[in-house]
Amino acid sequence: MRRLGIEHSDSLYFVALAESRNDETIANMVLVLLYQAEHLIYNYIKHIEGRFLEEGGFREKLYYARVKSRDDK
Q1: The domain containing residue 16 runs over which residues?
Q2: Which of these, 41, 37, 38, lies nearest to 49 by C-alpha position?
Q3: pTM for this one?
């Protein structure tokens, strides 16, 4: 499933695959796909957290842009 998840992004492929499998295999496929999705989301959140710590948030960026605008005048 991990390899298939990398090689195929079309959901119809997985629907066709599931139609030819028994219920237990389908449940295992879903568990693997859910684990992969959870792992990707976790990594994305960690990445965003790192960017926030390095670059600051939206309000912080607006504040610095406003201060720079005042100093340029």
Answers
A1: 2-72
A2: 41
A3: 0.64
CB-CB contact of 5 with 34 (8 Å): no
- The whole-angstrom separation of Cα 5 and Cα 17 is 12
Q: How far is CA 66 from CA 51, 54, 71, 72, 73, in A?
A: 21, 20, 9, 10, 11
What does the pLDDT profile of the chain (73 residues) look like in tens digits? 778 877 888 889 888 888 999 999 999 988 988 998 899 999 999 999 999 999 889 999 899 999 999 988 7
- Asked if residues 36 and 70 have their Cβ atoms less than 8 Å apart, the reply is no
The number of distinct structural domains making up the chain is 1
